[in-house]
Amino acid sequence: MTEEAAGQGPLRAGSPLRTPRAAAVAGIIFSVLLISALVLLRVSVPAHPAVPGAWLTDSRRRAAVAIALNLIPFAGIAFLWFVGVLRDRIGQREDRFFATVFFGSGLLFVAMLFVGAAVAGGLIAGQTQPGASAGGILVYGRHVTTLLLNVYAMRMAAVFTLTTVTIARHTKIVDRWLIVTGLASALVLLVGAGILPWAELLFPAWILALSIDILASRSRASAAENPARPA
After folding, report:
1. Burial (0-12, 13-18, 19+ Cβ within 10 Å), 37
2. Above 60 in pLDDT, residue 112?
3. Which residue from 129, 147, 179, 181 has the least number of CB within 10 angstroms?
4. What is the DSSP string of 105-120?
5. Are 49 and 97 in contact (CB under 8 A)?
6. Measuring CA to CA, which residue among 37, 21, 105 is closest to residue 70?
7. Which pTM value belongs to this model?
8. pLDDT the model gives residue 4
9. With 60 as the cut, is the pLDDT of residue 41 above it?
10. pLDDT average, residue stretch 212-225
């Protein structure tokens, strides 16, 4: 086979792989799953229960928490795909320093999200076993889970948002209003994570807006490259 014939395939030797357009939907999937999980956890587990673990006697609350914890792994997987979409959109304009912080904070966010969900799931499974009694270990576990999910993970989310906003501002890959709202969300998460109720919803909400903007811009670019021919 000649070199010319080999170069006529769908992917030429040495050409970069392109992220599928549909992969931008990963950001929307992540946002929907994480918002659903966080809302279920908020409404199902009281912030200050009178008796530790008393809510575990309610089967509906246990089911809601179980659903929320099972959504988190899929949210994390979708988030990793979303990070790949952003890096693909930045392309050769990516700065090494900001790229390192961007990628590292994203991985730490997912890791803390998974660890927090695993700790919560293990505690609930242990307390629902026959003969188990809610006590100090459940209180301790709840504090650990709250710190992991609402404090450390969300502060990593704030760092991820700040670096994304910084990269977007220099490369101009998103609209200005997304940069402003992303900066505001990151500052709120850095200062108010674990203090302000429902503050953790700011991160997936901003990712949702950013994902929709990515899809819309790619649709506009495709329409510009392939204009409809007149009849």
Report:
1. buried
2. yes
3. 129
4. HHHHHHHHHHHHHHHH
5. no
6. 37
7. 0.79
8. 43
9. yes
10. 69
